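Are you able to produce any protein sequence you like plus the matching backbone structure tokens because I've never seen that pairing?
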Amino acid sequence: MDRKRLPTLWVASLLASLAIVLWLALRQGSVPLIGHYNDKLLHIIAFTFLAAHCRIALPKIPATIQVVGLISFALLIELLQLLLPWRYFSWMDIAADAVGMMIFWGIFAGVMSFSWLKKHFSQH
């Protein structure tokens, strides 16, 4: 595969992931085997994945912009759900989405600091 095309493929896969999450959030009916607490777990997992996907697909975009973009996406989902009779707006969903992003960024910061320590100590 051509290395020049790889960033374009990552961005395309990010857009596809966002579309799938939006579709799942707006579709009528629920995901099978999902209860109230499992729903929040799905929000956490989805936004952990989306945050990681954003970081890989858009490495030159500052982290703060990525976080604001994903929180805006979470808010957009909830606002669109207000328009649907089978869905409802939930601040708890947005909070779960934010937790997912914090999990990714916490892991990312930990890995980056470990890499820095590893590099630092190998130079001495």
About this structure: The mean pLDDT is 86. Residues 6-26+41-122 form one domain.
